[in-house]
């Protein structure tokens, strides 16, 4: 029988009800002509492009043919050859909001803010005496529009001049008596996110202050985290809250918000002690549009794929444990999906043909219930064999890059005969012949017969050497499911290979007990 390994991540409040975890894998639907209706593929690895400053990378923006990187308290210009130039200093420690008008780049640092002019090459703080500070900034019809910290107030700058603010160029979002926590411009409309409501404004062209409310464009779904608001798929996504609760992820539908998170995602968020520091970025790769929602305090990263409407986890792997993903922000620059590191100044490309995170292990994992929904009659079953239907024979040279020897991660040189650890001796790189890694990548299987509460020992199997495209990965003599008469399987791996899982075949014998 086909065991239901495909699907999305869904770990319910009761793992006895659902314990389908998916880390660093995401599903892709095959509309026609496929072996199965879908398959699971590996999340992109991180290919280092540059190291910019000391980090963390707090914001990325692309305009005028250059990338701009806020690394620590410094702003850098990133060239197309991935060299960088220091521009000057900015303030703060958290995420920044950025927008440009073609010439000026406005950098909002949750209060103090800065303008970089790419014609004069000057970075300067906004010192206009009427400037109250900015949390979020956007651009509409020649104006920068920004939200004032801890207030209901939004402001506009002079046209095409972010350094000049008129003392009367402000208005209040008063549809609800909550402060603006975030602002974003979408389709030439300004969305103002309060703690308990959202209202939308447009450019009415009025004298003094050009923006006006759109009548009826108001809803009572607020925003729980200022930097969780992001554009994607012709709409907006955000982590919501209102007077009745918090922790639901919404996307815009017209001027309304519709729920895209599942009960399982909401249960996970509810376990986090603090979610107000959550932030998000979005990107599109090979037709998959991803909303990446990061919870720094909780050390977790969740990703929603618009193409499949499915959630999965992205994660680093440190000291044998999953951690939040290393990415901190995103831009499209130089034909690459570029992300910055949350700990240091490294800047990476998301690369679907890289199977490590800048030389560090990228572990993938999938757990699922052995029996299809509704077929468990609570009798014991003897599990004979489990065969993983996955692409094999793809242990690729170059899956690990040789990176600088100061990297904390192991560095490998790969060949068809195996992988060898690279160490530094003086000014030389030494191939450690005793550190040979098998050319046959492995996958690990565990199972739980009590709904996911406790697990068996690990059972490792090969996935085939290079060119063994028909290799069969099979586990045999898997025992009897007793206890709850309900088995959960889990497969995972760490080898730097392409992972594409089409399904799994389970042979079992039911009993009458």
Topology (elements, then pairings):
Blueprint: E1 10-11, E2 19-20, E3 22-23, E4 25-29, E5 38-42, E6 45-51, E7 57-63, E8 66-71, E9 74-78, E10 84-89, E11 97-100, E12 104-108, E13 113-117, E14 122-125, E15 137-140, E16 143-147, E17 153-156, E18 170-172, E19 180-186, E20 189-194, E21 198-203, E22 211-219, E23 222-223, E24 230-232, E25 235-242, E26 245-253, E27 256-259, H1 263-270, E28 279-285, E29 288-295, E30 300-305, E31 310-313, E32 316-318, E33 321-323, E34 327-333, E35 336-341, E36 346-351, E37 356-357, E38 360-361, E39 364-369, E40 381-390, E41 411-415, E42 418-425, E43 428-437, E44 442-448, E45 459-462, E46 473-476, E47 480-481, E48 488-493, E49 500-510
Antiparallel strand pairs: 1-2, 3-39, 4-5, 5-49, 6-36, 7-8, 8-9, 9-10, 11-12, 12-13, 13-14, 15-16, 16-17, 17-18, 19-20, 20-21, 21-22, 23-25, 24-25, 25-26, 26-27, 28-29, 29-30, 30-31, 32-33, 34-35, 35-36, 37-38, 39-48, 40-46, 40-47, 40-49, 41-42, 42-43, 44-45, 44-48
Provide an overview of this structure.
With 513 residues, the protein is mainly beta. Among the domains are: 135 residues, Jelly Rolls; 147 residues, Methylamine Dehydrogenase, Chain H (7 Propeller). 2% of the residues lie in helices and 51% in strands. It is built from one helix and 49 strands. Strands 4, 5, 40, 46, 47 and 49 form a six-stranded antiparallel sheet that branches. β1 and β2 form a beta hairpin. The longest helix has 8 residues. The chain is elongated and about 80 Å long. About 6% of the residues have low confidence.
């Amino acid at each position: 029988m086909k065991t239901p390994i495909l699907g999305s991540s869904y770990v319910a409040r009761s793992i006895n009800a659902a314990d389908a975890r998916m880390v660093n894998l995401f599903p892709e639907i095959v509309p026609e002509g496929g072996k199965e209706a879908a398959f699971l593929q590996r999340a992109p690895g991180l290919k280092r492009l540059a190291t910019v400053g000391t980090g963390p990378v707090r914001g990325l923006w692309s305009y005028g043919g250059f990338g701009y990187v806020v690394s620590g308290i410094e702003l850098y210009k990133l060239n197309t050859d991935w060299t960088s130039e220091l521009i000057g200093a900015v303030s703060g420690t958290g995420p920044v909001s950025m927008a440009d008008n073609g010439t000026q780049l406005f950098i909002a640092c949750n209060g103090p803010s800065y303008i970089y002019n790419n014609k004069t090459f000057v970075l300067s703080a906004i010192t206009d005496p009427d400037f109250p500070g900015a949390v979020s900034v956007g651009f509409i019809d020649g104006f920068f529009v920004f939200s004032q910290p801890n207030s209901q107030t939004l402001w506009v700058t002079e046209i095409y001049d972010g350094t000049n603010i008129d003392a009367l160029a402000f208005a209040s979002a008063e549809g609800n008596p909550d402060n603006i926590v975030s602002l974003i411009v979408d389709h030439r409309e300004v969305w103002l996110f309060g703690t308990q409501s959202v209202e939308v404004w447009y450019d009415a062209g009025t004298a003094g202050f050009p923006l006006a409310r759109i009548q009826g464009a108001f809803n009572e779904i607020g925003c729980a985290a200022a930097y969780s608001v992001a554009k994607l798929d012709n709409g907006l996504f955000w982590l919501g809250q209102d007077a009745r609760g918090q922790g639901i992820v919404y996307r815009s539908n017209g001027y309304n918000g519709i729920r895209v998170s599942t009960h399982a995602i909401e249960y996970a968020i509810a376990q986090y002690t603090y979610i107000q520091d959550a932030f998000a970025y979005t990107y599109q790769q090979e037709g998959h549009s991803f909303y990446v929602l990061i919870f720094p305090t909780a050390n977790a990263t969740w990703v929603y794929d618009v193409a499949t409407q499915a959630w999965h986890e992205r994660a680093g792997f440190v000291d044998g444990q999953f951690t939040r993903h290393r990415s901190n922000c995103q831009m499209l620059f130089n034909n690459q999906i570029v992300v910055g590191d949350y700990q240091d100044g490294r800047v990476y490309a998301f690369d679907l043909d890289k199977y490590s995170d800048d030389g560090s292990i990228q572990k993938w994992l999938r757990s699922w219930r052995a029996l299809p929904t509704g077929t468990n009659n609570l009798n014991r079953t003897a599990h004979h064999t489990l065969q993983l239907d996955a692409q094999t024979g793809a242990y690729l040279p170059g899956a690990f890059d040789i990176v600088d020897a100061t990297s904390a991660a192991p560095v490998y040189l790969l060949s068809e005969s195996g992988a060898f650890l690279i160490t530094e001796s003086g000014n030389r790189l030494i191939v450690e012949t005793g550190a040979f890694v098998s050319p046959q990548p492995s996958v690990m299987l565990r199972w739980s017969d009590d709904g996911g509460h406790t697990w068996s020992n690990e059972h490792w199997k090969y996935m085939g050497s290079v060119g063994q495209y028909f290799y069969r990965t099979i586990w045999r003599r898997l025992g009897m499911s007793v206890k709850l008469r309900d088995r959960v399987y889990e497969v995972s791996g760490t080898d730097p290979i392409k992972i594409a899982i089409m399904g799994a075949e389970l042979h079992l014998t039911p009993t009458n007990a």
